[in-house]
Amino acid sequence: MPEIKIYTQPGCPYCMRAVALLESKKVPFTEINAPRGTAERDEAIALSGGQTTVPQTFLDGKPLGGCDDLMRLERTGQLNGMLGLS
């Protein structure tokens, strides 16, 4: 199973939607609280290649993108394969 990390911010509706999608897949993931101005947010920005919005999702250290990106992967049927689901 791949390692999944998602950087979020409290109260962010996009973050909640992305987390709900991952929870619906029943895959283990780590949610990292990354409000503006924190070291965690700086880490997310660095890992994503400069993306400053949340959520930012990573699969085995590679950026998958934000909420819209995850939803697009889900709609096109690519997300399950990336997560190792059948």
TrEMBL record:
<dbReference type="InterPro" id="IPR036249">
    <property type="entry name" value="Thioredoxin-like_sf"/>
</dbReference>
<dbReference type="GO" id="GO:0005737">
    <property type="term" value="C:cytoplasm"/>
</dbReference>
<keyword id="KW-1015">Disulfide bond</keyword>
<keyword id="KW-0249">Electron transport</keyword>
<dbReference type="InterPro" id="IPR011900">
    <property type="entry name" value="GRX_bact"/>
</dbReference>
<dbReference type="GO" id="GO:0034599">
    <property type="term" value="P:cellular response to oxidative stress"/>
</dbReference>
<dbReference type="InterPro" id="IPR014025">
    <property type="entry name" value="Glutaredoxin_subgr"/>
</dbReference>
<protein>
    <recommendedName>
        <fullName>Glutaredoxin</fullName>
    </recommendedName>
</protein>
<dbReference type="InterPro" id="IPR011767">
    <property type="entry name" value="GLR_AS"/>
</dbReference>
<dbReference type="GO" id="GO:0015038">
    <property type="term" value="F:glutathione disulfide oxidoreductase activity"/>
</dbReference>
<keyword id="KW-0963">Cytoplasm</keyword>
<comment type="function">
    <text>Has a glutathione-disulfide oxidoreductase activity in the presence of NADPH and glutathione reductase. Reduces low molecular weight disulfides and proteins.</text>
</comment>
<keyword id="KW-0676">Redox-active center</keyword>
<feature type="domain" description="Glutaredoxin">
    <location>
        <begin position="4"/>
        <end position="62"/>
    </location>
</feature>
<dbReference type="InterPro" id="IPR002109">
    <property type="entry name" value="Glutaredoxin"/>
</dbReference>
<keyword id="KW-0813">Transport</keyword>
<dbReference type="Pfam" id="PF00462">
    <property type="entry name" value="Glutaredoxin"/>
</dbReference>
<comment type="similarity">
    <text>Belongs to the glutaredoxin family.</text>
</comment>
<dbReference type="GO" id="GO:0045454">
    <property type="term" value="P:cell redox homeostasis"/>
</dbReference>
